[in-house]
């Protein structure tokens, strides 16, 4: 009897694990903007210092630099207005949110408000993916709910059409 066959009591070889798809340059730009926004929320450092530090991080060269610039600079410049939108949909003051979830919500709200070329469902999904990777255990559910409600404020026509209304 051939002892190398699975029937002879040896386990069959496992199929090779699938690699997750490579991150897009735009996803990488969101991750780096998230790092910068987190630093800004926690330390209050100057945008120039944060930007320089973030650009030194490993993998930054693979990010969509234009989108990163737009997200980091825009979310910081527009933070008060974005927080006003988010405040209508969160269960506490935005200053009481974890800094990582707050930064993710700022990115999502910024994309919903200013990046009309990105479908609203994609903007929300990308924020949810950031929350899954960097946030707390169920933070992605919270981010999804808040941004889904905020999308109705920021993109009412698109949301209404998608929801069949």
UniProtKB/TrEMBL annotation:
Domain of life: Bacteria
InterPro entries registered for this protein in UniProt: NusB-like_sf, NusB_fam, NusB_RsmB_TIM44
Keyword Flavoprotein applies: no
GO terms for biological process, alphabetical: DNA-templated transcription termination; transcription antitermination
Record's compositionally biased regions (Basic residues): 16-30
Classification via SUPFAM superfamilies: NusB-like
Matches recorded under PANTHER family: ANTITERMINATION NUSB DOMAIN-CONTAINING PROTEIN, N UTILIZATION SUBSTANCE PROTEIN B-RELATED
Protein name, UniProt field: Transcription antitermination protein NusB
Gene: nusB
């Amino acid at each position: 009897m051939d002892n190398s066959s699975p029937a002879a009591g040896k386990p069959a070889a496992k199929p090779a694990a699938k690699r997750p798809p490579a991150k897009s340059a735009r996803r990488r730009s969101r991750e780096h903007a998230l790092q910068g926004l987190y630093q800004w929320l926690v330390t209050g450092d100057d945008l120039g210092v944060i930007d320089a530090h973030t650009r030194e991080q490993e993998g930054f060269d693979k990010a969509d630099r234009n989108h990163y610039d737009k997200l980091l600079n825009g979310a910081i410049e527009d933070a008060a207005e974005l927080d006003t939108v988010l405040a209508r949909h969160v269960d506490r003051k935005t200053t009481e949110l974890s800094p990582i979830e707050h930064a993710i919500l700022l990115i999502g709200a910024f994309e919903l408000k200013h990046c009309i070329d990105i479908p609203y469902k994609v903007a929300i999904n990308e924020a949810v993916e950031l929350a899954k990777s960097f946030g707390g255990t169920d933070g992605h559910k919270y981010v999804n709910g808040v941004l889904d409600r905020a999308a109705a404020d920021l993109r009412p026509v698109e949301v209404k059409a998608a929801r069949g209304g």
